[in-house]
Task: structure prediction
Amino acid sequence: MTLSASTTRAVDLRVEPVDEVLDRVGRSLQTCLARDTVVRKRRSIGARTDRGTWVRIERRGLDKIGVQGWNGTECAARLDGIAQPAWRGCLVWRDADEPVMWRADETELLPGPPIGTAVLTEDPKLPDEWWQAFSSSVDALSAQDTGRVATPDTVAITQALVTESIHSAFSGDFDTTVEQWVPAHADLNWANMTAPTFCLFDWEDWGIAPRGLDSASLWGSSLAVPALADRVRQERRHDFESRDGKLMTLFVCAKILGPGAHPEDPRQEPARRAAEQIVAELQTG
Result:
């Protein structure tokens, strides 16, 4: 039987009691999780261990665990040429009371702090060396092979989703067919990268996606800082200049401008301008 989304209780791990979960993970991995290092997010918890590693714990409903599983960090460990924390091992169990599963992945510590929140409002002023390492890793990722399908926001990205998302937000007679599908991180934002040493982490959603998804996602996370958004476009211009890259820019703009958008989001106006230009190009091209 397929579980519907309504069968899984909505939980925000930023406010949910998690001590029992942390204790269970520590016992199973034979380590102690430092409570003063705990980082809470909506669907995951992270903490440092007493052996100098990091553990990320995620709670996910069974309805959100598809055929490919939810072992993104484990599968990413085999990727070459990408700056990421080395994977050490994992623990997975099914909740005894609810239709959810828990997963804890242990990795090396990050080489530096995350750059910021998912959406930045100030320029992090990253050096050229950082941008070179960033672009090299994104290029290396797109050259890999995988049977995984990217799941941004835990939803598998398909041609139908791309078409529906774009045409629900933007009118016009233009084709939304994706030509090139390549591996992508699928959650590329400023909260999942480190500085001053570049490192890309949180690989839960990676897989095949339209070319340019990662570049467009990071650009969308940068729109409140025009110079930063311009730098992203400059560094990844071969993505943005491609037809698929333009479609992915519209895909990201649709999320910023869609029904759930915050009216005071400073990214809305630059997203609207960019979308209007791209729609015009696609209609004439």
Remarks:
- Residues 128-284 form a domain with the Aminoglycoside 3'-phosphotransferase; Chain: A, domain 2 fold (CATH 3.90.1200).
- Residues 1-6 have pLDDT under 50 and may be disordered.
- Strands lie at 39-40, 44-48, 53-61, 87-94, 100-108, 181-184, 207-210.
